[in-house]
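Dataset card, provenance and construction

Sequences and ligand SMILES were collected as paired inputs. For each pair, a complete structure of the chain with the small molecule in place was predicted and serialized as structure tokens. The example below shows a pair involving adenosine-5'-triphosphate. Curators did not alter the output after generation; any descriptive sentences attached to a record were derived from the structure itself.
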Amino acid sequence: MNTATMDNPSTHATTGTPRVRFEDVVVEFPTAQGPMRVLDGLSLDIHQGEFVSIIGPSGCGKTTLMNMLAGFVQPTQGRVLLDGKPVTEPGPDRGVIFQEYGVFPWLTVRQNIAFGLRLSANKTPKSGHAGIVDRYMRLMGLADFADHHPKHLSGGMRQRLALARAYAVRPEFLLMDEPFGALDAQTRSAMQDLLLDVLQAEGKTVMLITHSVDEAIYLSSRIVVVTARPARIRTVIDVPFGYPRGESVHEDPRFAALRAQIRELVMQEYAAQSRQQVRLSD
Ligand SMILES: Nc1ncnc2c1ncn2[C@@H]1O[C@H](COP(=O)(O)OP(=O)(O)OP(=O)(O)O)[C@@H](O)[C@H]1O
């Protein structure tokens, strides 16, 4: 179990050379009414070992931001740099987890987890694959279902399988888009703690999109609140808790204060987005 070290400030260096740089990024998508601007001059640096959560109204452009770092979307203007080089395509250094289960229905649980390990871009020696697959099946509570296909699993189990697949490849970056959103409260909390354990053991850099303010505070070293569409950065908040971190941070008075501050900002942006939608439907 994690233990909270609330007296230690976050130890994540936010100076020096960033691993990821969003540089004055603009994204526009074509629509029947002309180009729709989704991101509007957004700049953000992410450093090695940081856990950055993105919070903002539905449809404001958060997934688009992550998709650029994943290599799925190119900016209309500006640049997205990974270790100083423009991101042009997906790569095994970036594990992406979406809310909808990213699993292959025709493969068993064991085969799904092993899949990424077999790709030639993955550097894990073949002799270690079986052990890694077993470890993640155990961690995710899937060991008894090793030879089942996803259609025989519950929704929550399929999402745990998607997490196991992403973790097993041990990417340097985890890009997570509402990864726990479809899980029941208890499983969600267990998956959050497991993620903290994986990060503690493997030292990854994480970008998480979440609608849960509590989840963002519990997991992140920094929280980026973005505006209604087109998304810009509204505020960046440093979370004052160090790692390893555990359930007791929820009791810290600073947790409640942060929650109130972030909720207020997010509510304001939701209200702005709703006003826009009303104007669009006029
Ligand atoms: N490839 C695309 N082509 C056209 N429009 C797109 C494309 N991708 C996203 N959009 C639109 O861009 C806007 C922002 O979408 P995005 O998924 O980035 O928002 P989001 O903040 O992640 O939303 P949510 O919180 O609901 O998941 C939406 O209006 C969406 O319909």
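Derived descriptions for this record:
Strands lie at 20-29, 36-46, 51-55, 77-82, 85-86, 94-97, 173-177, 205-209, 222-226, 233-238.
The chain has seven helices and ten strands.
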